[in-house]
Every structure is written in structure tokens, then in C-alpha cells.
Amino acid sequence: MVDMLKAGMIVASVAALMTGVATPVFANDPYGYRDSPVLLVSPEGDLLDYTPERGEVVISRDRLGRRILLDRGGNLIATEVPAESYFPRQREARAPVPYDDYGAPRPGWQDDGIVTGTIPGPGVIDRQPLNEPLPDMPSGGPDMAPPVDQAPTRTVTPKIPVKSNLSQLEITALQAFLDREGASPGVIDGKMGQNVNKALVAWQQMTGETIDPNNAEDILERLRLSGGLAITAYTITPGDAAGPYVAAIPEDYAHKAQLPALSYTSTAEMLAEKFHMDEAYLRALNPGVDFTIPGTIIKVVAPGQPKKGEVARIVANKGLKQVFAYAADGALIAAYPASIGSSDTPSPSGTVTVERIALNPGYTYNPKINFQQGTNDKILAIPPGPNGPVGTVWMALSKPTYGIHGTPEPSKIGRTQSHGCIRLTNWDATELAKMTKPGVTVEFVD
């Protein structure tokens, strides 16, 4: 609440400083939205906590045309940004919202950022006979075929009613809280759905508490105690903008094998995963932003630190499409939405064990044990990267060709079915892998 009051006072102060005309402070709302035009944001992305005297600063413009405040030594004190862009909220009679009534991004919200790298042209591919598997690379089973976009066969958790005026930012706050608590909602996108419902149920199992997803004040207070508001400012670094990136990820595995790495395709894609976000939602929160420019301040979700602990048992619930990680004492450490098998290519049944764990793994394509992809009939060494077939993690199970792994398409987790393995978002798979050791049991339940 202090930050929200401060924002209101700064809005008035900015107007007075820039124009010499006093501006009234507008009433606060629970998420800090303001009708007044501008705020002063420090180079660290925070609201400036004081009002500079007019004679102490030089008013200039940066290369994006934004007004900036410099001290007499030429050092940046603050950048003027629109209040609505810093505290976004969808309301009637505002600028068009980034999503249509069906949740799809509206035209014009896409960013055409420049990326580095390209897809190599035709060249020699390192192929080996089918009876010579490549060392230290996962060679997944039928799950490595393209995802099955099948609708869930049943609703596994009760629908939680959402009041009609619940904003996208309020839902984001709930998702961020659950993510911080270890009850992953998958990608944070500001939308209610089964992944959020399942995370709520899992959080209640972890804590013995209940939470009303429609009580915005309670969620805000819980967020404050767990690390602050859901949306924070982030400055794009030169390393973020540099990559390396690739122009696109080809469908053909032979072309994949030619790339040096299956890297991200843009700064926006990388940042979305870094902050556990849906990429379209990241772009919508930052309309018109060029993510390739270092020093650009953007709004991102603050998901919190990875869960810590030692996992003794993993349960993959095929009906719930959810993975549960338990400690030795039976306490639930974390829960993750997952894509787990389908009726055509089911996951294993019963109990298996984790045999080995690889971070940032390459992948061995073998048509004899995987699937026939295009005209590829030889073993291919697919390079590692977040856009690889198994994402950033491979946890091999004792049942051959099956594993727990990441994915290049995090927004589909829990919403589509897999081809037998257990797919998680890259960040959830990494968190789980770092708490798990070989020998941990994995139980598949219906």
C-alpha cells in the first residue's frame, strides 16, 4: 500500500516538475492503476522515492524519445514512463486489450525483434548406423513425436467460480503466489483454468490452508509476505539481447541436427521462460517494446526462488495431468502441471525409478525406437537447447525410452496429451531435477 500511495504522489510530482502545473493525486485502487499520465522510474526499475528539485536536474530525452532526468554530472536519475504501462489493467473505455474474447493475442501486439543466428543450409549430417546409439544423450520413446493436441477426457478438479470483474492482473497475482509456493500453475498468463485450479488444490494439501481466489486483498497480502507484488520491473541486459539466438527451429530433425544448438528464437522467448510467463502475455504487458535493446525497462512477473528440498518419491497422476514431489516424511514439496500420455500412447503403469538426470541434454533420434520423422531413417544427434525435443532436462526412467523432461512449448503443458513421457515446463523440470537423485521412485497412477 505504501508503494501505491507513493506512486500517486509521484504522478502529481512528475506533472509539476515537467509542466510546472500541479496535478491532483487520484484515488488508489488495489493494483496501483492510475488515470494520471506519467511516473518517474529509476534505472533499477523502481519508482523514484523522492521528487527532484527543478534546479537540481537536467531534463533530456533518451534514444527512444522518452523524457529523462539527469543530474549535473550527466548520470541518469529517472525515466518518465506512462503510468498505465507501469501499472497495466484492463478496463472499459481504455486502449484495446491485448487478448480477444477467446484468449488469443490481438493483431498488433507481436514484436518483430531482430535475432542472431540462422538455419544452416544443406550440409553433412553426422549419421550413425541404427545399432550404434550415441553416448550420454537421451533417446526418448514415443513421446518424442509431435504433441497430441487432444482435449482432456474429463474434468478432474471442480471449477472455482471467478467473479465477472476479476482482472487479468488479479489472476496473475494468484498465479505468481502459487508459483512461489511450489504449487506450479504452469505458464503465468493471467487466465484462470484447470492448471490454476489444480495448483490451488495442491497448495491446500501442502499447507492445510484454504485460499479464496476471488479475494484480491488476501492474495495481495500473501504476495507481500512471499516477496512483493506479482509484477516487477526488469532492465534488459546486454547479455539478454546478445543471445545466442536462432532465427527459427526447423521441423525436420535432420535440419535440427545441423544447428549448433536449439536455442531460443528471440529475447522475448528467453525472458518469458526466465520469468515463468506465457510469451504472448509478456509482449502484451509491454506493448511496442523492442526487446533487443539493452537498458530497456520492461514489466515481468516476479516468480520467486526455486523450491529446495530432497525428493524421495514422485507421483505422476495421469488423470489429473499433474506431478507431485514428496519428501521422505511424506510431506508434499511441490506440484507441477504435466502432459502425461494419451489413450493411444499411454504412459507406463506401476512404479519405476529415476536412473539418471541430465541438464541441458542433447537428444538421440533413433527411428527404430522412437518414431519415423519425415524421411529420416538414420540415428541423428540433436543438439541441446531449450527448444530441443526434451527441453532443458532429461530424467531417464528405469522403463526404457521413458523419462521426465522439459518442453519447447510451455504453454501447452497440462492442456495437451503426450506420447508417453512426462512433460513439464523447462523451469518446473529443472526445479524437480535439482531436488531429485537417481533411485527415486516414480509411481504412475490413474
Automatic annotation (TrEMBL):
Protein's name in the database: Murein L,D-transpeptidase
Protein family: Belongs to the YkuD family.
Active site (UniProt): 405 (proton donor/acceptor), 421 (nucleophile)
A molecular function (GO) term: transferase activity
GO cellular component: extracellular region
Keyword entries, A-Z: Cell shape, Cell wall biogenesis/degradation, Peptidoglycan synthesis, Signal, Transferase
Top-level lineage group: Bacteria
InterPro entries: LD-transpeptidase, LD_TPept_cat_dom, PGBD-like_sf, Transpep_catalytic_dom
Pathway annotation: Cell wall biogenesis; peptidoglycan biosynthesis
Signal peptide start and end residues: 1-27
SUPFAM superfamilies registered for this protein in UniProt: L,D-transpeptidase catalytic domain-like (SSF141523), PGBD-like (SSF47090)
Span of domain L,D-TPase catalytic: 312-445
One biological process term in Gene Ontology: regulation of cell shape
